[in-house]
Every structure is written in structure tokens, then in C-alpha cells.
Write a structure and sequence with these properties.
Layout (H helix, E strand, L loop, with lengths): L5 H26 L11 H31 L1 E5 L5 E5 L7 H41 L9 H21 L6 H39 L4 H34 L6 H4 L1 H26 L30 E3 L10 E3 L17 H4 L21 H6 L4 H9 L11 H12 L6 H7 L11 H5 L33 H9 L10 H4 L22
Antiparallel strand pairs: 1-2, 3-4
Helix pairs in contact: 1-2, 1-8, 2-3, 3-4, 3-5, 4-5, 5-6, 6-8
Length: 524
């Protein structure tokens, strides 16, 4: 502001610089800056991240410019009466023409900072409203096709027009520019604060709905974490709205008691800046949540697995016919029927382990199985799963791609995907005799129970985090190191379920029923 003390302006610039440093550190810890690179899958998140960076740049430029002006102009002696003088910060009309021009430019930059910051605040509420409605209605409409997206674009245009319109009402009076801009921005922030209150009110019900639909513990824990962060963010938004309204609204009064007193002016100015950057920092933590599992002593270099019951591969299941009815020892191949809405069993690799791979190691698989996380209607539309949209917003599986154990986990998964040095399709083809018959290769079908660290049948393309409600079954026997870790941490496997607990339906089998009749004739 053009009438606060140089010291308070310096503290404001220090807050913005520290906020910028925190943002850079958080982005680096999140994925070493890869979120700054454009990817089609996370295009909208990329836009919001760069909005955060623009806000920080604009605020830093504004505060540094005014700090420079304040320390150049310093203080002046002002005659407040015939017998009394005071030492006050130099009024803007005593500045040089060049510094007055710099001050006017700084308020144009502040208008841009306020506009982009309010865009982000509006997006946060509208995006969660879109997610909640999508989950409850079980729709698969993308964010770019939603009504909330159109509302957000319209609100962004309105915010920009209001902020710049209020700033440029009178560009010759710096006090008027700062008063109008801050009052307009604080008023819009107050309206968005009401939207945050709505989100706080409906979020507990959304968590209960997620639990009712069978959300896994990772999703529920992340939702509770977001709920607490959103409550804190809303509190700081309320505080900075009150601070900015107190300073700007006082400028419309006759005696301006807040702005006329140096203590209250500096208090509300510094508090307003501090609360803005705390609120934006929390928003960044919600947008880019970091997985702190490694910092708490949980290793992501290897997954924890539970033993899976031996089952025949789903797409080359062999039904052995019984005796009688001409069946003899003949075996016949049968393709298991799959429902469109049934979910494949995922490997029990924890999210921290799956997140360690920078990309899906099964993306080039030739397995005929396909991920069945989408409903038939979703496939027809080509739209993402609603739970996949939520999973992307929760950032489960999108961060922490660069842990030290990532390469090892990827190699382990690739090894498990091709037991015996080939895919299950190759095993099925190898079990067909040249004469067109089928052989019961007991070692190839049922021998996996004796193989340490090997997978049972999984779909190559079903290894995905697009379905946070998928069952988390196990895939291999625990290794010696994992057994030792389990002894040290008895509750390590409490969150894991065996595929036997899921209760997959038994495959259909041919039954040969032999009816034997006998006739007894008694002679008299």
C-alpha cells in the first residue's frame, strides 16, 4: 500500500518471497517439478499449478516494487497543525513522477494477482462440487464437459473485469486505486468464502457415501485429510477477507480510523498478506498432496503381499471332464465369461510402491484381458470412470514417482507379469498339442503354488489406479525380508485382503450325469 510504513511493506515482501520458496520446495518434493511439464492426462492440474506460480510472481513483483519505492522516499515531516508536526511515511503525491508511475504499475500487477488467486479459489469449490455430483449420480462426464467448468470460466471473466475495472476508475489517485482494488477483491473473496462453507457442510456426507460404496482405506484417509485441510484453509480465508475489508472499507469512511492509526494499518496489512499466503499454501498441498510414507519409515522399495489361492488363468481355464457319458479323460478348453462391470483383481502392491514407477509397465502388453473398471456406458462414451476422476484429484498414484526403490519395484512387477519367462497367453498356446487336443500341464497350471515371488493370473492392463475402489488382493508369498519386517511390525498386513476374501464366482463346469436303471422281474 502506498501509505503504510516501509517496515510493514518489507515484511509483506518477505512473506511473498517465503511463500514462493515454500511453493518451489513443495513442487520439488512432490515430483521434482514434473508437474510443471504439460501432460495430456493431467492438463487441468498443470494449468492450476502454473496459476499458483503466476500468483506468486505477481505478488512478489508488487511487494518488491513498493518496498523499493518506500525505502527510496522514506519518511517526511508533516505539519498536522500550527503547533504540531509528525514524522510519517512520505505521501504518494510527494513522490517523483517516475515512482508514482511505478506505484500505478504495481497496482495493475496486484489486480492480476488478485484475479488469478480468486480464479483458483473459485475452481477449488466448483471442482469439488463437480466431483461430488459425479460420484453421487455415477456419471462419467469429464470436467471440461461439465456445467461447473462453464460456470468457472464465466466467473473468471467476471472477476477479471471487476478487479481491473475497480483499479482503473481513477489512475491518478494511488489511494483510490488501492482502496477500490482491495475492496473489490475482498468482496469477491467473501462470496467465495460462502462457497467454501458449503463444501465444509457437504464433505462429511460425501465421505460417508464413499465408505458406503466401498472405498478402500487409502481413499478414505485422503478424503479425511482433505477435509481437515479445507477447514483450515476456509478459516484463513475468513481471516484475510476480514483483514482486507477492514483496511479497504475504512477508506470509504469520513475519518478513516483504521488507516489513520499506524498500528491498525500495519496490523491488518501484514495479517492480510500472511493469511492469503497460508491459504494458498494449503490449497497447493491439497492440489499436490505429497506421500509422506517414506519419511515415516515405511519403505516403498518392495510391496507387501499375501498368498493367493491357486487358480487357473482366467482366459485359458481348462475344465477337466469326469468319467462316464463318453467323456473319459478328455479335457476341453473353456473361456470364462466376464461381466462388463466386474473388476479384475489387482496386485496388492501398496500405493506407495505403485507410485514408484514413473509409468505403467504393462502398457505394451499383449494380454487379451482388458481393464473392466468402466461400465459399458462409460466405454461407449469414452469417458473416464467417476472414481478415476476422484482418484486423480486425490493424486493417489500420481506423485512420488522418483523414490529410490522405484526401479526395483518396476522390475519386480515386470518379472511377476511374465512367470516362467512368458505370458499366460504363451502358456496357453504351449498347452495345445499338435493334434488339436489339450494337455493337462499340471506344472504350468497348478505349479505356481510352489513358486516363490510369482504372480497368479492378472491382466496386464488392469494394473491401474483408475479404480480406487478395486479389491486389493495379494499376488505372491512373502519374502524373508518381508517376513522379518512383519515380525517387527505385527500390524503391517492389517490393511490387506486375500483374493480368497473377495469370493470370486466359481467357473462353470461340465457335469456328466449317468443314470443307471434296473428292472427286477419276479416270477411266481
Amino acid at each position: 500500500m502506498c501509505h503504510e510504513t516501509p517496515t510493514s511493506q518489507f515484511l509483506g515482501s518477505l512473506i511473498t518471497i517465503l511463500g514462493t520458496c515454500f511453493t518451489a520446495w513443495h513442487i520439488y518434493c512432490y515430483d521434482k517439478g514434473r508437474c510443471l511439464l504439460f501432460e495430456r492426462k493431467s492438463a487441468f492440474r498443470w494449468i492450476i499449478v502454473w496459476m499458483f506460480i503466476l500468483v506468486l510472481c505477481f505478488f512478489c513483483i508488487y511487494t518488491v516494487m513498493l518496498t523499493y519505492i518506500k525505502y527510496q522516499e522514506w519518511y517526511v515531516v508533516v505539519n498536522v497543525s500550527d503547533t504540531k508536526t509528525e514524522i510519517l511515511p512520505a505521501p504518494y503525491h510527494t513522490w517523483s513522477a517516475y515512482r508514482q508511475s511505478l506505484g500505478s504499475t504495481s497496482y495493475q500487477i496486484l489486480a492480476a494477482a488478485f484475479s488469478v488467486s480468486l480464479w483458483i479459489n473459485c475452481e477449488e469449490t466448483l471442482y469439488w462440487a463437480y466431483l461430488i455430483s459425479t460420484i453421487r449420480r455415477r456419471e462419467s462426464k469429464s470436467w471440461f464437459q461439465s456445467v461447473q467448468m462453464k460456470i468457472w470460466v464465466g466467473v473468471c471473466l467476471a472477476i477479471t473485469i471487476i478487479c481491473y475495472g475497480a483499479t482503473n476508475i481513477d489512475t491518478t489517485d494511488l489511494l483510490s486505486m488501492e482502496r477500490n482494488l482491495i475492496f473489490a477483491g475482498a468482496s469477491i473473496a467473501g462470496v467465495l468464502f460462502v462457497g467454501s462453507l458449503w463444501l465444509i457442510a457437504v464433505f462429511p456426507g460425501f465421505i460417508r457415501e464413499s465408505q458406503r460404496q466401498g472405498a478402500n482405506p487409502d481413499v478414505i484417509a485422503r478424503l479425511h485429510y482433505f477435509k481437515e485441510l479445507n477447514e483450515m484453509r476456509t478459516l484463513f480465508r475468513c481471516l484475510y477477507v476480514v483483514s482486507l475489508l477492514a483496511v479497504s472499507g475504512d477508506g470509504f469512511t469520513k475519518h478513516t480510523p483504521v488507516n489513520a492509526h499506524p498500528f491498525t494499518l500495519d496490523l491488518f496489512y501484514i495479517a492480510g498478506f500472511f493469511f492469503i499466503f497460508v491459504s494458498n499454501g494449503i490449497s497447493l498441498m491439497i492440489l499436490l498432496p505429497r506421500n509422506t510414507g517414506n519419511g515415516s519409515g515405511v519403505s516403498s522399495s518392495g510391496g507387501v503381499f499375501v498368498r493367493r489361492p491357486v487358480q487357473d488363468p482366467a482366459h485359458c481355464h481348462l475344465d477337466r471332464g469326469g468319467g462316464g457319458g463318453g467323456g473319459g479323460g478328455r479335457t476341453r478348453a473353456r473361456q470364462r465369461a466376464h461381466d462388463d462391470d466386474r473388476m479384475d483383481i489387482l496386485p496388492s502392491t501398496p500405493s506407495s510402491s505403485l507410485n514408484s514407477t514413473s509409468k505403467n509397465p504393462y502398457s505394451t502388453s499383449s494380454s487379451p484381458l482388458r481393464s473392466t473398471f468402466k461400465t459399458t456406458r462409460d466405454r461407449e462414451r469414452g469417458s473416464p470412470s467417476p472414481w478415476g476422476i476422484l482418484n486423480d484429484r486425490l493424486a493417489i498414484g500420481s506423485n512420488n514417482h522418483h523414490h529410490h526403490g522405484g526401479k526395483k519395484v518396476q522390475d519386480d512387477l515386470e518379472m511377476q507379469s511374465t512367470p516362467r519367462g512368458g505370458t499366460f497367453d504363451q502358456q496357453c498356446e504351449g498347452s495345445i498339442s499338435k493334434g488339436g487336443g489339450y494337455h493337462d500341464e499340471e506344472e504350468g497350471i497348478g505349479g505356481d503354488e510352489d513358486k516363490h515371488g510369482q504372480n497368479s493370473t492378472i491382466s496386464m492392463e488392469s494394473i491401474t489406479l483408475d479404480a480406487p475402489f478395486a479389491p486389493t488382493g495379494g499376488e505372491r508369498i512373502l519374502s524373508e525380508d518381508e517376513l522379518a519386517a512383519q515380525r517387527d511390525q505385527p500390524g503391517l498386513l492389517n490393511a490387506f485382503r486375500s483374493p480368497a476374501d473377495i469370493g470370486a464366482p466359481a467357473p462353470p463346469r461340465d457335469l456328466n450325469i449317468v443314470v443307471v436303471t434296473s428292472t427286477v422281474v419276479e416270477k411266481t
